[in-house]
UniProtKB/TrEMBL annotation, chain A:
InterPro entries registered for this protein in UniProt: AAA+_ATPase, ABC_AA/LPS_Transport, ABC_transporter-like_ATP-bd, ABC_transptr_urea_ATP-bd_UrtD, BCA_ABC_TP_C, P-loop_NTPase
Name of the protein this chain belongs to: Urea ABC transporter ATP-binding protein
Annotated signal peptide: none
Record's keyword terms, sorted: ATP-binding, Nucleotide-binding, Transport
Cited PANTHER family: CONSERVED COMPONENT OF ABC TRANSPORTER FOR NATURAL AMINO ACIDS-RELATED (PTHR45772), HIGH-AFFINITY BRANCHED-CHAIN AMINO ACID TRANSPORT ATP-BINDING PROTEIN (PTHR45772:SF8)
Protein's organism: Parageobacillus thermantarcticus
SMART domains referenced in this protein's UniProt entry, alphabetically: AAA
Gene Ontology cellular component terms for the protein in this record: plasma membrane
UniProtKB/TrEMBL annotation, chain B:
Topology class, membrane: Multi-pass membrane protein
Protein name: Urea ABC transporter membrane protein /amino acid/amide ABC transporter membrane protein 2, HAAT family
InterPro entries linked: ABC_transp_permease, ABC_transptr_urea_perm_UrtC, LivM-like
GO molecular function, one term: branched-chain amino acid transmembrane transporter activity
NCBIfam families: urea_trans_UrtC
Pfam families cross-referenced by the UniProt entry: BPD_transp_2
Keyword Transmembrane helix: yes
GO CC annotations on file: plasma membrane
Keywords for this protein: Cell membrane, Membrane, Transmembrane, Transmembrane helix
Compartments in which it is found: Cell membrane
Source taxon at top rank: Bacteria
Transmembrane segments: 6-22, 29-49, 104-126, 132-151, 182-201, 232-257, 269-290, 305-329
Entry coiled-coil feature ranges: none
């Protein structure tokens, strides 16, 4: 099977600080890949490089056969890569419905948007996604008035409605209640039926519960890959990350 | 039609009928204010909706006005050299003045030149992601450049005095009340067209992209839109409105000088919109009319201290009405809605979201 995403020897420097040092990562269709690692390991930076927010100084990022290493952000999105940021970044002044309308998969050129009308199909899609993220009853409310968890969901919904082939999530469950976490975890696995998902997450319980493949990063490098069980046995990992957490507990 | 829609039409109807109930002097003032209202709509689009504060719209207004004035000057010189050129020792009409003998060339370049300048400037600044205060300062710098240029090149532009002493437009005497009333009506029509067009833009999906750019430009990028395209378009559009206002201004006022396109007028333009409410198109129109009416009222009645009143008005609005006059209307409506019962409203939300779009 061809990988959806392939990062080859990706390196990033921030004024001499080596945020990423030759990272290799392959993600296959329908995979849910968790990225874990201590603070400063470069997880978010890696997502930034994939979606074009940060530029790699060496190495290559391939999305299927497209080289997206130097592509502008909006073009990467149009290819089918969606990104959810750590803090919910939705449009507070627009209603939930309007937020979804902007996120729709559509021709995003200026003149196409000027002429754009909401088709019956689009409306049905929005309603379906809103029901799935349980925000249908809030459709006409300003997005700024939602609770933190709902904002996170709205943002996930805005990624879903783009029907991406690769979804990048940065700490999607931060600030959520126990029940909301559970539902988010299930939602992520539902999403993975149609696309590959890469998730950065700190919450170890959540990772244990919902992960199959986990990649551990440390100081800008990939330390190891495998299932959560493999990783817990790996001595290096225990040393840099899990051990520290367990001690803290 | 909604109640709001009726109010809009009533407002424009009242403007149309103004020649029947205003004196000649008041009408000429109102005509001038309506030109300012056109600029205000453009600034509301770029600042209120898209979140880009331009302190340099005087340049686009000025360029539009100068292009039109060049035609008027040549027409009133009857084939001779314009008076100010003779005084400056110029013996031949400069080559770039020649095309302005034709009214169509003059009017179309009055729009095209400012729009091209706006598109050029905004493309390179927005593409390089220059935003916020840096953009505002840059737009001020452009004003300084143009004002200095126009004052310095006296033999071509009339220097500090600007261009004035026009007699006719397309053969009609500018001083006759009949011509002035026709020009006034054209101004009202143009304002109405600009208003309707802008309104169509802002209620469509395009308008929501603009608000989204204002609230989170990066997020918009990660939804697959290219904000640069949108920002350049809206900025150039607002320049076109300002240029159109410049054309109508010079026809009705009969004068354009560098002082009218300088830094202070450019900042004043933003103030009109702030007074009216920056994210409301009708607010911007009313803001331009109210502020300028207040300005002429105070200056007529209190010639010594009128500037203090105007300053007080601005401070008052900024401190107590952060969303301008339009904000007062909205919060009044909201309070009324709350009194009439919240449950009713909550019910209508969902039904509208499904059926109303």
């Amino acid at each position: 099977m061809k990988p959806v995403l392939m990062c080859r020897e990706v390196s990033v420097d921030f004024d001499g600080f080596h945020a990423l040092q030759g990272v290799n990562l392959e993600v296959y269709p329908h995979e849910v890949r968790f990225l874990i690692g201590p603070n400063g390991a470069g997880k978010t930076t890696l997502l930034d490089v994939i979606c074009g927010k940060t530029r790699a100084c060496r190495g290559k990022v391939l999305f299927y056969s497209h080289d997206i290493t130097k592509m502008p952000e909006h073009k990467i999105v149009r290819l089918g890569v969606a990104r959810k940021f750590q803090s919910p970044s939705i449009f507070h002044q627009l209603t939930v419905w309007e937020n979804m309308e902007l996120a729709l998969k559509q021709d995003r050129g200026l003149f196409a948007v000027l002429r754009a009308k909401l088709s019956r199909e689009d409306r049905d899609t929005i309603i379906a996604v809103l029901q799935r993220i349980q925000l249908f009853d809030y459709a006409e409310q300003k997005a700024g008035s939602l609770s933190h968890g709902q904002k996170q969901w709205l943002e996930i919904g805005m990624q879903l409605i783009q029907f991406p082939q690769l979804l990048l999530l940065d700490e999607p469950i931060a600030g959520m209640s126990e029940a909301e976490r559970e539902r988010t975890g299930e939602l992520i696995h539902e999403i993975a039926r149609n696309c590959a998902v890469v998730i950065v997450e700190h919450d170890m319980d959540f990772v244990r519960r919902f992960s199959k493949q986990v990649t551990v990063m440390h100081e800008g490098k990939v330390l190891c890959e495998g299932t959560m069980e493999d990783i817990q046995k790996n001595e290096k990992v225990v040393e840099v990350y899990l051990g520290r957490e367990e001690k803290a507990c | 039609m909604t109640k709001k829609g009726w109010l809009y039409w009533l407002f424009f109807l009242a403007l149309f009928a103004a020649p029947f109930y205003l004196t000649e002097f008041r009408l000429s003032l109102l005509g001038k204010f309506l030109c300012f209202a056109m600029i205000a709509i453009g600034i509301s689009l770029i600042w209120g909706y898209t979140g880009i504060l331009s302190l340099g719209h005087g340049v686009y207004f000025g360029l539009g006005a100068y292009c039109m004035a060049m035609y008027l000057k040549l027409e009133s010189s009857h084939g001779r050299l314009p008076d100010f050129m003779e005084w400056s020792g110029v013996h031949q009409l400069p080559w770039f003045w020649k095309p302005f003998e034709h009214p169509l060339v003059a009017i179309s370049s009055a729009i095209i030149i400012p729009v091209l300048l706006a598109a050029f400037l905004s493309y390179f600044t927005f593409k390089n992601r220059i935003k916020g205060v840096y953009f505002s300062l840059l737009s001020q710098a452009v004003v300084v450049v143009f004002v200095t240029l126009f004052i310095g090149k006296q033999e071509w532009t009339g220097g500090t005095n600007g261009l004035t002493n026009f007699s006719t437009v397309f053969g009609f005497p500018l001083s006759s009340p009949f011509t002035q009333i026709i020009l006034y009506w054209i101004t009202v029509c143009l304002l109405l067209l600009i208003f309707l067009f802008s309104r169509w833009l802002t209620v469509s999906r395009f308008g929501r992209v603009l608000v989204a750019i204002r609230d989170g430009e990066n997020r918009v990028r990660f939804l697959g839109f290219n904000p640069t395209t949108y920002k350049v378009f809206v900025y150039s559009l607002s320049a076109a409105f300002a240029a159109l206002a410049g054309i109508m201004f010079v026809l009705q006022v009969g004068l354009i000088s560098p002082a009218m396109m300088g830094i202070i007028p450019s900042i004043e333009m933003v103030l009109w919109v702030a007074v009216g409410g920056r994210s409301s198109l009708i607010g911007a129109v009313i803001g331009a009319i109210v502020t300028n009416s207040a300005k002429s009222f105070f200056s007529e009645n209190y010639p010594d201290i009128w500037l203090l009143f105007l300053g007080g008005l601005f401070i008052g609005v900024v401190m107590f009405l952060p969303n301008g006059l339009a904000g007062v209307y909205q919060s009044f409506k909201q309070r009324k809605g709350q009194r009439e019962g919240k449950t009713h409203e909550a019910g209508s939300h969902v039904s509208r979201s499904v059926g109303g779009f």
